[in-house]
Design a protein that fits this description.
The protein contains four helices and eleven strands, in the order ααβββααββββββββ. The protein has 211 residues and is an alpha+beta fold.
Amino acid sequence: MLLMLIAGCAGMPVEPDPTDPTVEPPTAPAPQPAAPTRFTCENAAEALSRPSWSVYACAALPGVTGLYAMTLESPEGAREGRLVPVGADGLVVSDTGMAAAGAWMREQGLLDNPAALTLQGLTNALEAFGGWPEPFDMQARDFDVPDVGASSFTADPFRLTLYMMRDHRTDGGPEVYIRAALEQDDAGKLVWRPAQLDGGGWTEGPVMPAE
């Protein structure tokens, strides 16, 4: 009988002795990270990782889908405004720069329906990503100088054209103006085509990929 009991116990698992210092305690499973919050104007503070802040103002911008202008307010009353690009998955896009702006426009399907875009909408998107070709900025949107050009957008063909003055001459010579055009190349990829006007006509610069 004793032999049968011993044989039966031999096949049973042995529980570790919790008082044995050589036995490591069981480890709890690692907590899973919380799913990111999809952006809406109601939960914008949480989606932007500012859960203790409140939404002071928020609105979708016209002329381009997936872009919001919003202002958050801290518990102390400080306010912070920004443009927020949202991806096709509803999440805030945190990448910045020229390539990020181009990729977001592609993902949002903006190039599939360019007739719905506007000069204001596209330049707002560039501002949100910091996606300007240097040294352009938001002021280039309003450029309109006779015999030089005016910033504009056309849907067919897709072309965003920006102008700005690069150098204001004080020696009596002509001002130097620059231009940058966002368009699709022969492969359908977004590129910037820069140029400079220095009195002898426009001189094209090297093409810059935009996505």
